[in-house]
């Protein structure tokens, strides 16, 4: 989309950028009244609405009449071009289907309850609660610390000891669930019943036309049960339970949770941190993610609906720990992940950063916020603006205003007013508010342009510190946890106040989507140059491994304040060693901002205090810079903003839709401005149109594709001496068996062996290597490149292959032709048999042909699969596109030649050299990777041979010297899986017209 298109959208944004309020269905629903209200919602500037059951609903939830009016509203929404969404519950939290599902006892939520008893009470309690008992223990208890813990089975306990009894309790019946309870959201069969009662019912009973109008489903405040807190059905001595808890715990972690249950509630004397608690909280979180969120995600995908909503309690790390664990992990499973924000003067701005971080990393374009709830009738437009601005600044682009009432009858008028609807005198003017927010969302439509810092989320350090009494309601009541919370919040304010953009790194997401390439940490679709540890006390082993590789490749690891010493809540020398490679700084604003600042930022913000925040977004060749004065009481004056880049600088006014040119930048634009309390400014740097719009390319390979096979079963005189091993290491094994010295840089010269060891050379043994590969798509044929000695025999699936006359790459590699008749779908076998002597050696072999290659399996189980070559290549790494071992050149064809003279800029060099083909040929080899060419037709990336010839098992981060021993490394410098460099046409190639 070009600039003119964006300008048009900004002036009059469509429904996709507009808010979708909670449309509160809270009375006896009437079809004509519903249609009238839909017209008003459209008139107010909304782009859609969520059909939301609320207190006061008089039409049976999910009954026949309910389904009929939902159907009719969807039909009317189509008529007026207004999007409608399903809300998946009767009130909230989502999961019980208004108590329908939890009428069945087996679907109800449960908890484990700790009872701290005097010695004299223990025996009677166990007898009285026999059916509910999970376990009982005796110990000496002092505060929340215990010692001399032992199992208690009744009778008279040892003198001076307390009894710890743990019972299984079902949640109490509750009118909020229409006389039932909340759902066990960790239990697969319970969630299946919930889905059958809601999602499946809608899909079954609505017409095909109506279903096509359902945009998606909103899930509201689901959770896995209260943990050591007084919220919902929990208390400070209870934790969530599900049927699979103990068996799944034993299977995953290898020990019996029942033997360690007290450690979740209390602490062994002298211990501050608990690995058992980490394991427990991780497991119950994963139950919820897999059995609730993932099931809803899958069902929505099956039905063609978007999955959105928000989880329960994100404001602090303690809030999250109490009700879910880590909310960031849940955002991965939602098409449009969201948060909620209750009240007006909140300042927990980091919750938007938590959401946007995962959305950026998981490449989710939309983020939701449920906002304006609990604000009251006294609100002005200015108040609504102040709530929405900072969330929009962080990239949240789908607003769900709370609340638009169907009726004010009775109790309904007190259901978190004000009603953002026809009941408010200003409803006809509200479109001005919606136009403003929609334009703000257009301005943030894009990807963060200057975010290269990852801040580790320290929530598992909170988990490890928890115990009975550490939370009051859902807030920290423990100084250690509170200290983490304070540092977490202050880190956010330091960085944002200094104009340094960042994302949070959640450890579970890092474990699933993190990698290190060329000294940068990749998390999903994002890449980071620096990692900041602030308030982190313990981390997962998987995180430690990732950070170790990051610093090994030259990445910058920063530790603010006290350095972590633990892995999985236990002191660990490996962590101490990692910290030796980190930059340690005091936890001060000056030190943090200096160390975390980018070396070449897109902008500099100065003289702005700590309350002016800036975010920047890139779309096509536009970079949008948005400033917001977060202070609603004081102005910010004489702010200096410097934009680094060439092009036209414009100010885009979200209030009016007006666009005006500010200046033309020839490399640096310096702006001086002031901001009133709560005021925003939007500037756009238009760099000129990038002429390269292609996402996929027709291509030409300069050579046949190649698959390297370097693992084989080796036989000596028909005895299998190694299975699926590296051929070079197997060669040393054979030479050991035969009494020959190893090959290497200092081995005896072949001429010398031939001259002085003629008798030994006559002593030959039968050695064969058996290689395996899988064919998923049969190629027309293929060739084998083998270093074939005089008596070498090559067979493919038993068929003897003949040597061809020519060679591959080097005269050492003979080619053997294998026709299609030799091949088969599934596993194929190549046998290379040698008449092996002192002058012999085992080597890898290579498959050549018109096929694609993919790798499957881990470690020694890794296999090579032959698939079809892709019809087209997209920009970026060719390794996952069927060309992992390829090392020739690839010519990427433009759809049509570019007329005239253009400059071509590569964002990075991911080949040995680049050739531009046009009316003339030009070369790009050195930074800044630019060249000019006339009539550009194609771009050729010429690669090096590393991904073919290796060393294929040494990490790409290896920076030592390369020689014979590099190919036979061991320990940390050896990986069983092949280690491949990223190569291909860079994802960002910029073409500019030259006048």
Automatic annotation (TrEMBL):
<protein>
    <recommendedName>
        <fullName>Alpha-L-rhamnosidase</fullName>
    </recommendedName>
</protein>
<dbReference type="InterPro" id="IPR029062">
    <property type="entry name" value="Class_I_gatase-like"/>
</dbReference>
<dbReference type="InterPro" id="IPR053161">
    <property type="entry name" value="Ulvan_degrading_GH"/>
</dbReference>
